[in-house]
Design brief:
The chain is an all-alpha fold and 176 residues long. It is built from 7 helices and no strands. The longest helix is centred in the last third of the chain and has 53 residues.
Length: 176
């Protein structure tokens, strides 16, 4: 028996469980808002999680999926997480939750795993790990861009303060 067709039947449920796991890093009141608010501008975290979940489930299970759409959704999910004040391991831990969610689904359905099923489950774990590594690369690039923008902002402010001080005779003009 192949696990992919069995899990495909539960893909919507798996995606819902994954969204709940992705929202679990936030305080309880925020989690309620993330589940209930459908406004993409008021709730970018909830929207990005909901867009990524079905694509992520299909990719991890090994079902046919649009890799470009998956990459775009993953990038958007990571972009929102990268600007939040969360450590990287907390920001991206939801991606690893797929492993447990899939195992839990199989257990809840009473599906006994044969040796070939275990190999297929290991392949799913590998796909999950690969997606998490891709997301970590995206996260690192987003954080770097975020901090580079902050550095440029500090430089710009510093320059403005110096010019203002020079105009009012509070600092000497730089003659270099």
């Amino acid at each position: 028996m192949s696990l992919a067709p069995v899990l495909e039947h539960f893909c919507a449920s798996l995606a819902g469980s994954w969204v709940a796991a992705a929202n679990a890093v936030y305080p309880f009141a925020t989690d309620g808002f993330l589940r209930s608010s459908q406004d993409p501008f008021a709730n970018p975290v909830g929207r990005r999680s909901a867009e990524l979940a079905p694509l992520l489930c299909r990719a991890v299970i090994g079902l046919p999926h649009d890799d470009a759409a998956l990459s775009a959704a993953l990038e958007e999910f990571v972009r929102v997480r990268a600007v939040q004040d969360l450590p990287p391991e907390t920001s991206l831990e939801a991606l690893f939750a797929c492993k447990g969610i899939i195992r839990s689904c199989l257990k809840d359905q009473g599906i006994e795993l044969a040796q070939t099923d275990r190999q297929e489950l290991e392949a799913m774990d590998t796909r999950c790990d690969s997606l998490a590594l891709r997301a970590f690369g995206m996260y690192s690039r987003q954080r770097e861009a975020f901090f580079e923008a902050r550095i440029q902002d500090v430089r710009r402010r510093h320059s403005q303060i110096l010019r203002l001080a020079e105009r009012h005779g509070m600092a000497e003009a730089d003659t270099e």
